[in-house]
Design the sequence.
């Protein structure tokens, strides 16, 4: 056993080093975090960066050079659904709240903390005296308009109904055209007072307020631009730290310029940020080394090559990847409907090697669904400490489950398909799973199906797969962002998993436990145990990390665990 | 001649029409929805969005609408770049690719032809072997290897030119153009050499020599002109490919060109953009082939372009 593992490791290392030698890494790593748009970063890394941040006065020239991995598809806050778009929004606009340097949502367009009614259903926000970039005031009506626009089904907002349904009063009905848009639970009490009525108490509601979909929009401006609104930088109106310029709507570059009309402009140090789209990470690294970029993301082989570089920064994210076990395909039960088979597969692959050797990008092996360093209880204790590890790698146990499962199914061998992405990184990963699973579980034959992201979504939607490598990045800071995925008939379940006990716990967390934080977290811990240990409905693989090269003079960058990736508001150049 | 050109233009439109039809229906077989956020929308929204983009209608109706708009020159709206017309998208993305392709083509062919002539005129000497070796390298090594090498040495190591990006004026275009130029350069060199050696050994060149024409005149006026015919045949399509962008070279130098856009539109099922790019590529190719046919006649009057009665 031991020996074969070493052999696999050695073989892997060999293969990897060949890749390294052969192509110096012009490959794209898997970027889409499967179902969830992966707009998420984390605070945990800050140690290394904060150490760098301590010293240094800002330089006279405050110009930053960055790259993105994709062009901006849209910056219409109702329409945005991708990482780059949310990132731009977060830096040119601002919601009622903004995530601060410690990733805590604090009042931004709101002048003070919201007043919450006793029953947790009504939130009243007093707006600060903030201006749009055209020097008109930001008013409560701007929020009413933006929220109504996002929930209006005619807008086709991916995140409007997704974020508001079951949260803001009447949102679900409006998004299904069963009610008028004007009946949404939002109200401009006066010019500077915005009131929201919720469907049920939502403990994480304030953290949603920093999310792009909830940003204000000036009705007059949007209406005057009509179809041209947000199609290029001339048709945008900013109320955040920066103004977007030189964006032609489809091109590969844009520039942020400091917004002098921003209410907190005196704390914004950068004058300009130049962004270029660089899709090839190897090119980004060369540009970085040539001084053309102040930060470059590395992936795959590059990450391995540069992880010990003194300018390398590891940044754990909050996206978690896992196997989805499809229990019903083409109307028939699959072998994966058998819990022992699921447990066997979940426990039969070594995750540490997977994270350290195959991915080698700062990712962590995951024995959980809710990521580490993401959700904290009242005493700021990580949810992970509360819930512990589940479904750890254990070959002996896996083989026992496997034998039992095969007996129950009355077969001696199984052919299963793993559905994965078509990037080099995913393919490498799939090969690893195949060798691990086939090696550890006798009679298992794995076939790999590697397809582009859009095709995978389609197959997922039709439940046309056996095992799928899938992932999720949270949209707000609460375990429910993950736990909600696997309730019976959940829109992202799509594998026919159903456990009434699990459903009940999740339902309770939204209902009777909504205002009891401690018991609520316990319910989540219990639900996670059911989902993983008892049912093995999914098999966690890893929590993603990223490695960046980051110039030491680039200080004060804040990265966020959910929503937009970064805030440049506090960033500055010192000692360049 | 006019009749011939008119006929050719009609054929060109028919070809384009057939290509548009074929790609339209082929594209429908792509798995997955063109609406990127499909899994996040509820059923009401899906219905509305599908209606907005007109993809709720039966395929033949969609096809008819598309063709009608196409006739007006409207390529539709991108699914990925929300609310943006594919015409605009192609226009902004095509520019860098056009510049690079054109520069690569001009540089590559001129240098290639010179090398080829040198090799032919100094047949079986050091010059010949040297240029042949160079040409073989150019043909067998793919452009992205040249791109990486140029980027590494000239930009990263010696800092003579930018490593990448499209923001430094003409300087940004030099390395990618050079990398792209290797293909046409090598090809031209090989063709010109082979053809010229053959032509130089033919009877009429002997005659020209016997009549006392000087070497320069023979090389350019007679041998070179005749050697151009086969070269143009292969260079035409190559040029169409070059000016419409190279995915790999654009990626390596982080250039926002159309080659890269084409591939990503396929990956994201952006139907309108896939159609737009395909048609643009086809149109380029068809036009280039047409130009090549006209050029035949210009270069070699023996080739009759008017066909039939003559």
Sequence:
């Amino acid at each position: 056993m031991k020996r074969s593992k070493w052999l696999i490791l050695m073989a892997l290392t060999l293969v990897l080093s060949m890749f390294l030698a052969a192509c110096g890494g012009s490959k794209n790593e898997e970027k889409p975090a499967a179902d969830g748009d992966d707009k998420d970063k984390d605070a945990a890394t800050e140690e290394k960066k904060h150490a760098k941040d301590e010293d240094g006065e800002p330089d006279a020239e405050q110009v930053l050079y960055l790259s993105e991995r994709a062009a901006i598809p849209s910056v219409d806050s109702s329409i945005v659904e991708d990482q780059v778009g949310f990132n731009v929004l977060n830096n040119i606009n601002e919601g009622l709240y903004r995530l601060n340097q410690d990733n805590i949502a604090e009042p931004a367009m709101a002048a003070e903390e919201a007043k919450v009614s006793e029953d947790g259903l009504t939130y009243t926000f007093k707006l600060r005296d903030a201006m749009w970039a055209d020097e008109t005031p930001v008013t409560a009506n701007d929020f009413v308009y933006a929220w109504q626009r996002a929930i209006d089904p005619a807008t086709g907002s991916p995140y409007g109904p997704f974020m508001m349904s079951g949260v803001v009063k009447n949102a679900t009905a409006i998004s299904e055209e069963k009610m008028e848009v004007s009946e949404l639970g939002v109200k401009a009490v006066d010019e500077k007072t915005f009131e929201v009525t919720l469907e049920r108490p939502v403990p994480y509601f304030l953290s949603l307020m920093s999310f792009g979909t909830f940003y204000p929009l000036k009705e007059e401006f949007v209406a005057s631009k009509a179809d041209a609104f947000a199609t290029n930088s001339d048709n945008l109106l900013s109320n955040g730290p920066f103004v977007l310029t030189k964006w032609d709507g489809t091109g590969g570059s844009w520039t942020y310029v400091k917004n002098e009309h921003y209410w907190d402009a005196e704390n914004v140090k950068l004058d300009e940020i130049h962004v270029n789209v660089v899709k090839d990470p190897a090119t980004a690294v060369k540009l970085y080394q040539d001084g053309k970029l102040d930060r470059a993301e590395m992936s795959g082989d590059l990450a391995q090559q540069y992880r010990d570089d003194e300018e390398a920064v590891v940044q754990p994210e909050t996206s978690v990847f896992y196997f989805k076990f499809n229990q019903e395909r083409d109307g028939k039960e699959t072998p994966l409907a058998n819990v022992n088979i699921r447990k066997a597969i979940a426990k039969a692959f070594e995750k540490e090697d997977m994270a350290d050797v195959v991915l080698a990008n700062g990712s962590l092996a995951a024995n959980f669904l809710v990521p580490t360093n993401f959700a904290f209880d009242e005493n700021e204790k990580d949810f992970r400490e509360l819930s512990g590890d589940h479904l750890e790698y254990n070959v002996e146990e896996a083989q026992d489950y496997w034998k039992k499962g095969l007996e129950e199914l009355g077969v001696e061998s199984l052919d299963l398909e793993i559905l994965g992405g078509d990037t080099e990184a995913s393919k490498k990963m799939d090969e690893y799973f195949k060798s691990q699973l086939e090696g550890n579980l006798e009679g298992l034959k794995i076939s790999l199906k590697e397809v582009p992201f859009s095709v995978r979504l389609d197959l997922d939607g039709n439940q046309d797969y056996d095992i799928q490598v899938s992932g999720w990045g949270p949209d707000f800071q609460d375990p429910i962002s993950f736990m909600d995925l696997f309730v019976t008939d959940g829109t992202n379940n799509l594998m026919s998993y159903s456990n009434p006990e699990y459903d009940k716990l999740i339902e309770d967390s939204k209902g009777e436990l909504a205002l009891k934080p401690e018991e609520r977290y316990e319910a989540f811990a219990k639900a996670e145990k059911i989902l993983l240990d008892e049912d093995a409905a999914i098999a966690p693989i890893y929590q993603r990390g990223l490695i960046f090269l980051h110039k030491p003079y680039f200080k004060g960058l804040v990265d966020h665990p959910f929503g937009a990736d970064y805030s440049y508001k506090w960033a500055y150049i010192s000692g360049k | 001649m006019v009749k011939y050109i008119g006929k050719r233009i009609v054929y060109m439109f028919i070809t384009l029409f057939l290509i548009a039809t074929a790609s339209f229906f082929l594209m429908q077989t792509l798995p997955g929805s063109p609406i990127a956020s499909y899994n996040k929308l509820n059923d009401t929204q899906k219905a509305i969005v599908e209606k907005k983009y007109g993809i709720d209608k039966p395929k033949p109706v969609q096809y008819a609408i598309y063709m009608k708009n196409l006739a007006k020159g409207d390529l539709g709206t991108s699914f990925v770049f929300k609310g943006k017309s594919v015409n605009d998208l192609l226009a902004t993305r095509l520019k860098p690719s056009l510049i690079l392709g054109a520069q690569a083509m001009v540089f590559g062919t001129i240098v290639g032809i010179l090398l080829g002539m040198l090799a032919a005129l100094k047949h079986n000497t050091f010059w010949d072997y040297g240029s042949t070796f160079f040409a073989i390298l150019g043909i067998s090594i793919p452009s992205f290897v040249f791109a990486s090498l140029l980027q590494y040495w000239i930009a990263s190591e010696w800092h003579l030119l930018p490593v990448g990006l499209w923001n430094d004026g003409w300087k940004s275009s030099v390395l990618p153009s050079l990398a792209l130029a290797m293909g046409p350069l090598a090809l031209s060199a090989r063709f010109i050499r082979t053809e010229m050696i053959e032509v130089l050994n033919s009877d009429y060149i002997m005659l020209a020599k016997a009549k006392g024409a000087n070497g320069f005149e023979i090389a350019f006026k007679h041998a070179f002109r005749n050697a151009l015919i086969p070269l143009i045949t292969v260079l035409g399509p190559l040029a169409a490919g070059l000016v419409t962008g190279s995915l790999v070279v654009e990626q390596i130098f982080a250039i926002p060109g159309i080659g890269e856009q084409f591939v990503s539109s396929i990956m994201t099922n952006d139907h309108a953009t896939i159609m737009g790019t395909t048609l643009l590529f086809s149109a380029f190719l068809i036009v280039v082939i047409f130009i090549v046919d006209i050029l035949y006649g210009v270069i070699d009057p023996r080739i009759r372009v008017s066909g039939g009665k003559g």
About this structure: Chain A touches chain B through 58 residues (CB under 8 Å). The longest strand of chain A covers residues 312-325. Chain A is about 30% helix and 20% strand. The CA atoms of residues 460 and 494 of chain A lie 7 Å apart.
